[in-house]
Structure formats: structure tokens, C-alpha cells
Design brief:
Number of helices: 7
Largest sheet: 4 strands, antiparallel
Oligomer: single chain
Structural class: alpha+beta
Number of strands: 9
Helix content: 40-55%
């Protein structure tokens, strides 16, 4: 950890001399420093010490360079000139580098450190940075940005940080062909719909066979029984009628479902018809009993 050195007895004496100089007491052979400049020098000296303690060595070096100027009072100038080498020895430097997909060095690239632009030219020269964890981001033309998390240590000099570009974004194998992006999804959806409708058709035909056989059997039983005396209950007659109607409806649904399923199955391969959005096929049978019969419909999109 960087700490400010306590003022020794000679430095206390120099500080006292600086205080006298600040009040206007100057040697007779030297021109008195500008009061505003003296205040700036004193402020830079104090700020440099605080920045050094906080680990912001880049900023601290700038302050000590400022207060080491010849225009500053000698007392302040001597103190800053003493602290400047210590800060510079602790100040780490890095050498960022970038390579393209062929392994060649990239010169024209922007490098940011924690969001602030560090350099736009990778010329192999060291760059001073503050110690601590940082995020380096490399941005080059026609390539995806690359980020690196690094920890820079106090006193680390000329650390080389080289990263490789990932290259331009890859295109899909079908790019440049006349096959739409969603053609595969549309084809697969039609094939699935043909299976669903085929299953519905088989089930419907099975229901037709069962309802037709049992309905006709019930009708024959009514005719041979209460039908001869015309004493059949209305509920029994309605039950037989409903069963026969449902049998007819099931037959219609089965035939239509199998027909549509067959058409979808044989047209689901090799399509190149563009579509604005790939949607899964939607099919729903609608059965409605009607007086003396029934109606069957298939509603959906493909």
C-alpha cells in the first residue's frame, strides 16, 4: 500500500520557509512567485499525496510533475521532485496488442480501459495505468469486440496483453440460396400436421364403425320390441338417433381428415414458398349435430 512519508525535520523547516514565502517574504535576489501560481503549486502538492494514497498513481504523477515546475516556490518544487520518482517507480505500464484471425498484428484499433479510451493505435509502446482490476476492450473494424479482465499490480512494468480477434459474424450455411430461413420449419410443421390429421382420421373412422354397428343394433332391437306396439319411450328413440347421427359425423370427419393428411404429407417436402413468419399448423375439428343429421368441419391454418 502506498503511503505518504512523514515530514522530517528538514522538511518541516522547508514547509515553514514555504509558509513565509507564501506571505510574501522572498529573497532580495529572486522575483517573488505569482501568488496564484503559488496556490496552484501548493494545491497540486497536497492533491498528489492524496491521489498516491488512493492508488491513482497516474493522476498523482501528473500533480507532482505540475508542482515540480520552475515557476513553483523552491520549497514545494523540491518536495514534488522528491516524490515524483517514487510514484513513477510504482506506476505500472502495459503494452496492449491485437492479432487478427491470421495471426497478424493489428495497429488501427481502439482500446478502452474501464470505458475510457486508452489508445487508438497499437504501436507497441507502454501505457501507464493505475494498479488494480480493470476491463480492457479491443475494438477493430470488421470484427467483434473483445474484452479482457486483468489485474494490474503495483510496479508491474511493460506487461504485454495480447488478444486475438474472433473474426466477423458467421453466416448460416443456407445464406445466399433461394431457400427461405423458415422453409425447414414450415416443412416440418406440415409433416407433423399430416400425422395429427391422419391419427384423427383413423380414430374418427373407428368411432364411425362402433357407433354405426351399435346404433343399428339398438334400432333393430327397438323395432323388434316396442316398435311393434308403438310403445317405445321417447328417450330410447332419441338415444338411437343420436348414436346414428354421431356415426355419420365421425365418418365425415374421418374421410376429410385422412384426405387433408395425405395432401399435407405429399406436399411437405422440397417447398420454397416464402413465409412472413413461421407458425405451427393449427387444425381443429368442429362437429355440430343438426335435426335429422349433422355437420362436420375442419378449421385451421397451415
Amino acid at each position: 500500500m502506498l503511503t505518504s512519508r512523514p515530514l522530517s525535520a528538514p522538511r518541516l523547516f522547508s514547509a515553514a520557509v514555504f509558509a513565509v514565502a507564501a506571505l510574501g517574504a522572498t529573497p532580495s535576489h529572486a522575483a517573488p512567485p505569482d501568488p496564484a501560481r503559488k496556490a496552484q503549486c501548493a494545491a497540486a502538492f497536497e492533491e498528489g499525496q492524496e491521489l498516491e494514497k488512493a492508488g491513482r498513481l497516474v493522476e498523482a504523477r501528473g500533480k507532482f510533475v505540475s508542482c515540480s515546475d520552475e515557476a513553483c516556490p523552491a520549497v514545494v518544487r523540491d518536495e514534488c521532485a522528491t516524490m515524483l520518482p517514487r510514484v513513477e517507480s510504482s506506476l505500472p505500464t502495459i503494452v496492449p496488442g491485437l492479432r487478427d484471425a491470421q495471426g497478424n498484428d493489428v495497429v488501427a484499433a481502439e482500446v478502452t480501459l474501464d470505458g475510457a479510451v486508452l489508445t487508438k493505435t497499437l504501436d507497441g509502446q507502454p501505457i501507464a495505468v493505475n494498479p488494480g482490476p480493470h476491463t480492457l476492450r479491443f475494438v477493430a473494424p470488421n470484427a467483434a469486440p473483445v474484452e479482457r479482465q486483468v489485474v494490474i499490480r503495483v510496479g508491474e512494468k511493460n506487461r504485454v496483453i495480447t488478444v486475438d480477434l474472433e473474426g466477423p459474424a458467421k453466416t448460416s450455411p443456407d445464406a445466399g440460396t433461394d431457400k427461405p430461413a423458415d422453409a425447414g420449419a414450415s416443412t416440418s410443421g406440415k409433416r407433423v400436421a399430416s400425422y395429427v390429421l391422419g391419427g384423427l382420421g383413423v380414430v374418427s373412422l373407428g368411432a364411425f364403425a362402433y357407433l354405426g354397428i351399435t346404433g343399428k343394433a339398438d334400432l333393430a332391437a327397438l323395432r323388434d320390441g316396442c316398435g311393434r306396439t308403438q310403445s317405445c319411450a321417447e328417450t330410447d328413440v332419441d338415444a338411437v338417433k343420436t348414436k346414428l347421427i354421431l356415426a355419420d359425423v365421425s365418418l365425415g370427419v374421418g374421410v376429410v381428415s385422412l384426405g387433408v393428411a395425405t395432401a399435407l404429407f405429399f406436399t411437405s417436402g422440397g417447398e420454397k414458398k416464402p413465409a412472413t413468419a413461421a407458425r405451427a399448423p393449427f387444425v381443429r375439428p368442429v362437429v355440430a349435430p343438426l335435426p335429422g343429421g349433422g355437420a362436420a368441419m375442419l378449421i385451421g391454418t397451415f
